[in-house]
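Before we proceed, please read the two lines closing this message. Tell me what the token row says about the fold.
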Amino acid sequence: MNVFRILGDVSHLLAIIILLLKIQKSKSCAGISGKSQILFALVFTTRYLDLFTTFISVYNTVMKVIFLICAYVTVYMIYVKFRKTFDSENDSFRLEFLLVPVTGLSFLENHSFTALEILWTFSIYLESVAILPQLFMISKTGEAETITTHYLFFLGLYRALYIANWVWRYYTENFYDQIAVVSGVVQTIFYCDFFYLYVTKVLKGKKLSLPMPV
């Protein structure tokens, strides 16, 4: 465990807390992609099946449980508690465009051909593209609420910090996971335009718009 990993986890958790507080305080999930949240819930579910087979540390177990609970609470708030405020018309990204290739790639490129390993690989690949429905929704509506951009910023920061974590582990532990690293880099690239707009617009008090051709 190193500082980049811990900061990455904190950033990830902070992003989720910001999102949940935004929804609860405003009693609205307007501007939030339910499809992205479903994908994140699927990511955590398939990645953390090792909770039933392997104990790594108390920290690891607690964080996994928290992320799982928060993911499903978010989905519940969007599709059940505040479903009347859900913008289904603009949350129109076709999930099969992500799920089909990710599933196929998980079977083709993995560390070992076992159920748990394939599901873990699936979760890594899926996480790299799970934010696309949210970015697509922003591009379709033309703007995003400030609190939503804060959520996206910390989510992107989490991935950037994990890249630093992998670099650190490579030089200190000679550890390198090609699947995780490549997927993490791809995911971070998706945030690059957003990071630029966040710094040049949101931090200056302007609204953010994110055109993204799909």
In short: Helices lie at 3-26, 34-47, 58-81, 96-108, 115-129, 132-141, 146-173, 178-200. Residues 16 and 70 are 7 Å apart (CA to CA). The longest helix spans residues 146-173.
